[in-house]
Amino acid sequence: MAEIEFYTEQFRVMDCDCDMNHRLTPGAFLRMAQQISTDQCESIGMNDEFYRQNHAVFLLAKLALKMERTPRGGEVLTLVTMPEQCKRAVYKRVTEARDEKGERVALLDSRWVLVDTDTRRILRRPPEAFEIGRFAEEVPFTLDVTIPKPAETEPSGKVTATYSRCDTNGHMNNTRYADAAADALPLDVLTDGEVKSMVISYHNELPAGQSAELVRGRTEDGGWYVAGQRADGRPCFEAVLTVE
User: Fold this and answer.
1) What is the 8-class DSSP label of residue 109?
2) Containing domain of residue 34, as a range?
3) Residue 163 DSSP code
4) Based on the domain organization, do 89 and 15 belong to the same domain?
5) Are 236 and 230 a contacting pair, CB within 8 Å?
6) Under 8 Å between Cβ of 52 and 6
7) What string of pLDDT tens digits covers the 244 residues of the chain?
8) Domain count for the chain
9) Are residues 181 and 227 in the same domain?
10) pLDDT given for residue 2 in this prediction
11) I need a labelling partner for 144 at 20 to 30 A (CA). Which of 84, 106, 167, 195 fits?
């Protein structure tokens, strides 16, 4: 069996990834996490050609993000990504970020499914090529991925899968839903506070050029709930943010 390796990479917090308070946005952090995940997969041969040959691709189903401290522009973060073997059709991947003092600033628990690119169905039994020996049997970090529902919601605009928000799958990139959820909140909520945690559940992809109507509401514990619904009536995503 191949030796299990967790993958490490450094990222500089760019000014263009920061908000008006010079703090790293949740969506920008998710893009760092997405990049290190891609780099780790490519390092063991799981590149675009590999996915094409096996007619399968990983899609994100849920994630939970916990921010211990919001990094600021100019900081250098060390990310470590830790993928787990498939369990009940789900691949868990945990990504941790530490600052230059070695202190953890963020923890991301993401849950992925393997989808057949021809049928668009979840593969309960992965192809032999996806039996990845260098993914760990167990990753000892777990965050709560449940999303509490508010008693009431109100309209909060819409989000469109525009050119700059889409990826090579032809739909809105999963990190852009974090941007959409943050943008759906009243502006002063995030200018006066910071996102301490975020949970996103991805229901149905938003294809390029299509839009989703957004609603928002407050949960019993004071969190902000945001959800999107496509024009065909199908739910697109749900998210809940804790802002302090």
Assistant:
1) E
2) 7-130
3) G
4) yes
5) yes
6) no
7) 344 569 999 999 999 999 999 999 999 999 999 999 999 999 999 999 999 999 999 999 999 999 999 999 999 999 999 999 999 889 999 999 999 999 999 999 999 999 999 998 999 888 888 877 778 999 989 999 999 999 999 999 999 999 999 999 899 999 999 999 999 999 999 999 999 999 999 999 999 999 999 999 999 999 999 999 999 999 999 999 999 9
8) 2
9) yes
10) 47
11) 167
Question: CA-CA distance, 127 to 131, in Å (whole number)?
Answer: 7
Residues in the chain: 244
The CATH number covering residue 85 comes to 3.10.129.10
- Number of other CB atoms surrounding residue 90 within 10 Å: 14
13 plus 89 within the same structural domain: yes
77 φ/ψ angles, rounded to the nearest 5 degrees: -110, 140
Q: How would you label 27-66 residue by residue, b for 16+ Cβ within 10 Å and e otherwise?
A: bbbbbbbbebbeebbeebebeeebbeebebbbbbbbbbbb
H or E element, residue 244: none
Residue 141 CB neighbours (<10 A): 14
Question: 41: which 2 tokens?
Answer: 């997969």
**Token pair for residue 5?**
């390796």
Is the overall model pTM greater than 0.70, yes or no? yes
d(CA 173, CA 56): 17
Residue written as tokens 């990094």?
71
Rounded Cα distance between 192 and 207, Å, is 33
Choose among 21, 121, 112: nearest CA to 71: 21
Is 65 domain-assigned? yes
